[in-house]
Amino acid sequence: MPKDSLNHLSQQELISGIRDNDRRIMTLLYQDIFPKVRSYLLQNNGDEDQAKDIFQEAFLVVWQQVKSGDFQPQNSTALQGFLYQISKNKWLDFLRSSRFKKEQSLSVFPIERSDKQETGDQEERLTLLEKAFSQLGENCQELLRKFYFEKISLPELAQNFGWTAQTAKNNKYRCMETLRKIMKP
Fold it and tell me: Which of 14, 16, 38, 153 could form a disulfide with 51 if both were Cys (CB 3.0 to 4.6 A apart)?
């Protein structure tokens, strides 16, 4: 049995390896699944550190379920799929969280803050932002104000504007892109 691939291991061998805390099995699972999880997170507003954290949390869930006997494989890739799906669900939960929305709202209009930078630069950037924001159409201004400053969710905004959730998401994206274009010198 090759030591560098999960392809030649049965689900039962994987489960036994996890139950026995077999380092080789856990390493193979990490090498097989983590790149897929990382790729998913990077494509969906995540970064490398977040991918590592999410994967670790998901792996812990799988490890606990296997140890307790609650995990029963349904097919030849059940464990790998389960681990990936838990990672994906944990990331989606984070994206829906108020913590993520707060982080996003703070990073939407980046204002560099360092000891070396003068307050005048920050004020100039804010002035530029206000000017650019005033150049947006009324709907864009209202949408962005409600989403970023009043913290109204996209589904609520969709309902308020009489849009579908996807339309609200697309319109928010278009408005932000327009704002970014206006802000670029």
Answer: 38
Q: At what angle do helices 23-43 and 48-68 cross, to 10 degrees?
A: 140
The CATH code of domain 118-183 reads: 1.10.10.10
Please provide the average confidence, as pLDDT, over all residues in the chain.
80
Sort 75 into a burial class: Cβ within 10 Å, 0-12 / 13-18 / 19+. Answer: exposed
pLDDT in tens, 61-97: 888 888 888 877 776 568 888 899 999 988 888 888 7
Q: What is the mean pLDDT of the segment spanning 124-149?
A: 82
Which residue ranges does the chain devote to CATH 1.10.1740? 11-96
Higher pLDDT pick, 139 / 127: 139
Give dist(CA 83, CA 126) in Å, integer.
44
Element (H, E) at 117: none
Instruction: Please count the other Cβ atoms lying within 10 Å of the Cβ belonging to residue 145.
Output: 13
CATH number of 11-96, picked from 3.80.10, 3.30.70, 3.30.2010, 1.10.1740: 1.10.1740
d(CA 111, CA 108): 9
